[in-house]
Amino acid sequence: MDKQRDFVLRTIEERGVKFVRLWFTDVMGTLKSVAIAPAEVEGAFAEGLGFDGSAIEGLTRSYESDLLAHPDPTTFQTLPWRGEVDPTARMFCDITTPDGQPAVADPRHVLKRTLAKAADAGFTFYTHPEIEFYLLKSSTLGANGQPEPVDSAGYFDNVPGGTAHDFRRRSVRMLEDLGISVEFSHHEGGPGQNEIDLRYADALTMADNIMTFRTVIKEVAIEQGVYATFMPKPISGQPGSGMHTHMSLFEGDMNAFYEEGAQYQISKVGRQFIAGLLRHANEISAVTNQFVNSYKRLWGGDEAPSFICWGHNNRSALVRVPMYKPNKGQSSRIEYRALDSAANPYLAYALMLAAGLKGIEEEYELPAEAEDNVWSLTDSERRALGYAPLPQSLDDALSYMEESELVAETLGETVFNYVLLNKRREWQQYRAQVTPFELQSNLEML
After folding, report:
1. What is its EC number (predicted)?
2. Per-residue pLDDT at 57 exceeds 50
3. C-alpha–C-alpha distance, residues 409 and 402, integer Å
């Protein structure tokens, strides 16, 4: 760690860095940032930087508000969009109380705690997200009361001279400059919708990368005169934006999900992990899909999963076992398709991992796979096959979460209670709205 700190201090000096931003995340997954002068960095490493935690969503109660942000030197990067004028760098922080204890409501700590539990069982947790988002002409609504996308292209479309090409090229280059490897980028199914897939990394690095990714996308959009949104379902009648996440557990250099000769090359550990995700999917939904709007995506068709089942290469299933490459055993993995792009990645990954580990610990039995397109079945057919629905609203998801020992234990009491309280308030505010739909349907007729 000392070597890392020395490297950071040396780099700040060599590159003439003028500001260092200390980043951390509140419980809802909003990035927080405080800039310090280079001369203050050494002190921040030694003692942390004090701030009022009660002013940040969910971090502390007002009577215990003093917190310290400790920069993690392994996350040091200069920010490419700041350019050569006043070069600026960033580091992610771990949050502690004044007596040096990890702050119970620091989302990064929640994930670290769950990763430590996995490590005790001999596992390292890797994730690879496919992040979807919309590019809009602006953050204001068009004449039809809907957001205006920058193009009307579709899945994998090549748009000559289109905004999205330049946008993706610039974004990918910027991400690579920040040490974040990109695997694919392409136009998605909705007008103005894009997807960028980040290369596999351990879950903590990836959660940091996702927070950086969202900032990069927003910055490049501003630079190019457009607006980027990670809202799960911004446009009626168009696909929502998901963050399908591929996952695997490794034991040392060995992929614990791989077993040669097993069905789809998925080991017993892999099958139990899937069973854990399926059994606890409803309980973790209020975190993997944390907004009222998230459920418009889950129940709006367009390849979003609505029912709890798994399948091999079945895009209507909640958990998918992708096609394996016969000579690449290490690539065995599973894909969780409910997560949306607006989730807090630290809390979501902690809960997905906890659900999978529970399946391994308790040796859950994996139900039969879904071979049909689950959306095309009738309700009674789905019931007969045992495919339960995911929560149909945020209110529904909160009822499941409230009863969940797994979620309470993983998040810890403070975060658990805060999420419930905050999200109940969101639901109540939503429920009190009189929507355009009601006015159009009822005003003249009634």
Report:
1. 6.3.1.2
2. yes
3. 12
